[in-house]
Specification:
This protein is of the alpha/beta class. The protein is built from 22 helices and 10 strands. Strands 6-7-8-3-9-10 form a 6-stranded mixed β-sheet, sandwiched between helices. The longest helix is centred in the first third of the chain and has 47 residues. Bound molecules: adenosine-5'-diphosphate.
Amino acid sequence: MTETAAMPQDKDPMDTIPPKPDTMRLVKRLIRQYLKPYMGTLGLAFFFMMIAAAMTAGIAQMMQPVLDGVLNVDSQGTMIWSVAAALFGTFFLRGISTYLHVILMNKIGQNIVADIQTALFAKFMNLDLAFFHANPSGQLISRVVNDVNVMRIAVSDALTGLGKSSLTLLFLTGVMFYQDWKLSLAAFIIFPFAAIFVALLGKRLRRVSGSIQDEMAGLSDLLSQIFQGIRQVKAYGMEDYERDRAGKAIKKVKNLNMKSVRTGNLSTPVNEILVGIVLFGVIGYGGTQVANGEMTGGQLGAFLAAFIMAYEPMKKLAKLNNTLQTGLGAAERVFALMDRDITINDPATPATLSETKPDIVFESVGFCYPEGDGKALDGVSFTAQSGQVLALVGPSGGGKSTIINLIPRFYDADEGAIKINGQDIKNVSMASLRSHIALVSQDITIFDDTVSNNIRYSKPEATQEEIERAARMAYAHDFISTMPDGYETRLGEDGVRLSGGQKQRISIARAVLRDAPILLLDEATSALDNESEHAVQQALEELQHGRTTIVIAHRLSTVQNADNIIVLDKGQIVEQGKHEDLLALGGVYAQMYQVGLS
Ligand code: ADP
């Protein structure tokens, strides 16, 4: 059985995402599900934001005593030290409170990221194999890493913007009105123009951001495919071709990013021009007032300081919508994954299997892969007798792996029923079903971990003695003992590489340790060296002993010793019986046997 079935390349499965829900629903969901636990921290952050905002307004207001009391020669320097001390105090407080609210907001943002990533991963773990075949791993990684990070930036920026920028703006506006309310009203006429413009930009930006995340996901997926298939790439001299493909994908992401930057920053020149117009008017009108003695230089100075300082929070507020739209685009994709239906579930009242020698019965089973064309199995009925070996043979694509996929409920049969010990597997809890099964497949995953932990994967609570016993029974103990740190040697990418036969034996040791009554076996087709071949063969024979075994047989020896043989072709059973009977029948099996011998 191959666990990495071909993935459809021509279709982006993410485009099955439901229609865009409205902004308010997304925001509400974010708040309800993810922000709620951090309301206390958020309250504290807002408190420090308020202090920082008040201090900013204080600095603007202090321009009045600085200009009128310190810089004005008529004041005779009486206020110098008090004004200096007050300014120092204001900056000091602003610095401390800014630091604190930034830290608190980051704490919230990082926690939300971790919460979403954990929830998303937990969801992935519960989704069925069909989902993983439909969604390339690169795309899923991109959702967990990129999209969630974009959401974090949006949440932190939006909250900080709403809190700090609006408070700062409010206090600075207060200073302006305090100094000259008529001038203030005139200055704020620019607001509605800026707001309309920004709203228009936001829509466009959300669309671009969606495409960026799509292309990024595509790029991650492409890269992970190329790295995984690097042997093929080199063997067929496809380096240039792949360089080209990756280059194109990278360029696409770059271009989209540039489009987003151009759109997102369009508000800057527009706002600068608007502010320039207002400053022109304020200096013209205010300057005349000062010249006529209707206003002091300090008052106009404080007004100007407040207006110029208000520009920064205003800019931030204007960009807030953009940030929010980008984040909401990402949130939509993440939520779409979170809301996926889990099709293979425990029944409402699950039964438990408790049989040490179960039989497995297929009753007119029909099955079609979600992306498959046509039936992979059609009206398949057979019984795997308790404690016996049932061999599946037949041409490639006949349905052998599919039979093995249906027993642990990697997929659910569309028609008919599969019964273990008379119980329909759909009525049994998944945990109980899977605890009855050990699976030894062709492509074996060796994790970046010690030998012991790699074997322990099938039984986390196993003791070291149990692990060693399993390794001995799998004929793996000898080669493990010659490794630098024995059972503590690290395997995988960062550690020792194993030969094909050694990997097989580690996976057999896993199955031995599992000690499950049902054994699903996909014999290796790739050639092993003689010694490995013999050891693997012997280990497998011992493993089968006393268990109900279904084996996809590639070797004549396995087939001859099997208690029953099923010949599958195009999803249907074409012959069934013992080796001798099938030979005598002179049909498909007899032909295959002749070819195998010649
Ligand atoms: P065998 O193990 O005998 O080679 P399989 O059980 O793998 O055959 O395949 C049976 C049929 O199902 C084939 O037509 C194959 O193309 C199809 N198939 C197998 N896996 C998938 C999948 N993940 N998605 C779609 N079709 C699949």
